[in-house]
Amino acid sequence: xxxxxxxxxxxxxxxxxxxxxxxxxxxxxxxxxxxxxxxxxxxxxxxxxxxxxxxxxxxxxxxxxxxxxxxxxxxxxxxxxx
Length: 82
Ligand code: SF4
Known about the structure:
Blueprint: E1 2-6, H1 16-20, E2 25-27, E3 33-35, H2 42-51, E4 57-61, E5 70-72
Antiparallel strand pairs: 1-4, 1-5, 2-3
Bound molecules: iron/sulfur cluster.
């Protein structure tokens, strides 16, 4: 199953992904994008991928992941936003 990979080293914290798809992305305390949820928001996520100026968000298959990337395919409630 595809998952989302965000290359934190390339993220500049511009918030474009959050503006385009707040259901699936948020900035963490270091102003780096992190993935919240994928279910039901595939089109929105794809739009966020296409708007990212550094192209650091990608769909990736399990096995493509390494220590330099952040990935998530499971739902996670945003802190303080539930
Ligand atoms: S659009 Fe890309 S560079 Fe901007 S915050 Fe999101 S992941 Fe980071």
